[in-house]
Amino acid sequence: MTDTTSDAASPTDSPSVSSSASLPVSPSLTLLGLGAMGTAFARAWLAAGYPLTVWNRTPSRAEALVAEGARPAASAAEAVAASTLVVTCLLDDASVGETLEGADLTGKDLVDLTTGTPSEARTRAVWAEARGARFLSGGIMAVPPMIGTPEAGGYVLYSGSQDLFEAHRTTLAAPAGTRFVGGNPGHAALQDVALLSGMYGMLAGVAHAFALIGGEKDIAPAEFAPLLAEWVAAMSGTIPQIGEQLASGDYESGVTSSLEMQVAGIKTFLGTAADQNVSPELLTPFFDMMRRQAETGGGGEGFAGLVGLLT
Ligand code: FVH
Fold first, then answer.
1. d(CA 168, CA 52)
2. Above 60 in pLDDT, residue 1?
3. How far apart are CA 32 and CA 171, in angstroms?
4. 119 C-alpha vs ligand 1 centroid, how far in Å?
5. Strand ranges for 118-277 from DSSP E
6. Does the Cβ of 137 fall within 6 Å of ligand 1?
7. What digits encode the pLDDT tens for the residues 245-271?
8. Topology annotation, domain 16-183
9. Which residue, among 125, 279, 235, 96, has the nearest Cα to 188 in the 3D structure?
10. pLDDT (average), residues 122-133
11. What is the mean pLDDT of residues 280-286?
12. SS3 230
């Protein structure tokens, strides 16, 4: 299978005009990996009119997409050969290596949307370049239902070859928003993991909050949930100040809720958890850090001072 509408020669991948029918012709691409996320990307590209070649280790997962217009490839190597732009959306970095092992990557633009560590992305970039491909790593900041739904706000962080990104930016933007975050191939993965880490911290607090009210018959979780969502959203407004303080090195100016004040309140949180028969295990490591920073001269600071305790 070959790429008949390759965009390799175009400076950008904006749709060109077919001379016969005067209809815009979208550049073709290949997608390897049709799990929940890969399938969502495939549907978005098909819906936007992109000729799409697909491959999946378990072929049956391609059937519905083929019925929707995707071209099936019999092997990963055949799928890679079909297009200049090759996208992988697989389980992990090891599966990317296994899948592409026998494929000829010479002249290909490889975009890897598989979640991995920054060092895996950097190593994969060297690996791809040694095989004659340009490489771009993507960190998907979305769940599958957000793909192909611009109003949902999902986007992909990209880092690596800016030339590749610019050449295919229209194609890459069809399923979700795009943010190029620099030439270091590991930086999309790093910021992806950093953003998700912030989410896990938030969800740890959310789990503790629901546990606290869980024993009360007359506080319905479904009624409490919007209060919690509003509060967490409101407090996310303090994040930019933390970023500014880390940049300036001044962790005290503008602080309205000092660590000293908050450390004094820890007994209230632990006492409430005990009263409600809730384990404080999700909060105690953070409380311990707050105490440590306050006791070593950081009592007038906000949370920026805690960051240095981790490094
Ligand atoms: N789904 C989500 O909510 C998250 C959102 C953020 C980004 N992640 C990452 O996206 C990658 C793909 O995720 P997914 O949701 O598509 O994952 P699965 O549905 O589990 O599909 C996995 C696909 O990988 C194929 N695969 C696994 N191992 C191999 C292998 N050794 N060789 C070839 N392919 C392999 C698997 O094939 P099969 O099981 O159908 O044969 C699926 O196509 C991922 O990095 C998330 O962390 C998703």
1. 14
2. no
3. 16
4. 19
5. 134-141, 155-160, 177-180
6. no
7. 999 999 999 999 999 999 999 999 999
8. Rossmann fold (3.40.50)
9. 125
10. 98
11. 98
12. helix
**SS3 label, residue 40:** helix
Given the CA of residue 61, which atom of ligand 1 is nearest to it?
Answer: 40
Pairing status of strand 71-72 against strand 155-160? unpaired
| Cα 235 from Cα 136, distance rounded (Å) | 34
**Is the pLDDT score of 52 beyond 50?**
yes
* Ligand 1 atom 27 nearest Cα: 91
Q: Which two tokens stand for residue 186?
A: 């590991």
Rounded distance between C-alpha atoms, residue 283 and residue 175, angstroms = 38
Ligand 1: which of 37, 39, 124 to mutate, most ligand atoms within 8 Å of CB? 37
For ligand 1, atom 2, the nearest C-alpha belongs to: 143
Residue 241 carries which side chain, given as an amino acid letter?
Q
Residue 90 Cα: closest atom of ligand 1: 24
Ligand 1 center to residue 205 CA distance, Å?
A: 28
| Residue ranges, CATH 1.10.1040.10, the chain | 214-310
Nearest CA to ligand 1 atom 13: 37
Residue-level pLDDT at 17: 52
- Lookup: tokens for 280: 């404080």
> Residue 23's pLDDT is what?
61
What confidence category does residue 59 fall into, taking pLDDT thresholds of 50, 70 and 90?
very high
User: Is the CB of residue 148 below 6 angstroms from any atom belonging to ligand 1?
Assistant: no
Residues of the chain with CATH 3.40.50.720: 16-183
**Domain 214-310 is found in CATH 3.30.1490.20:** no
pLDDT of res. 157? 98
Q: How confident is the model over 70-108, as pLDDT tens digits? A: 999 999 999 999 999 999 999 999 999 999 999 999 999
115 lines ligand 1 (CB under 6 A): yes
Alpha helices in the chain (DSSP H): 36-47, 63-67, 76-81, 93-100, 118-130, 162-167, 169-173, 187-214, 221-235, 239-248, 259-264, 266-275, 284-293, 304-307
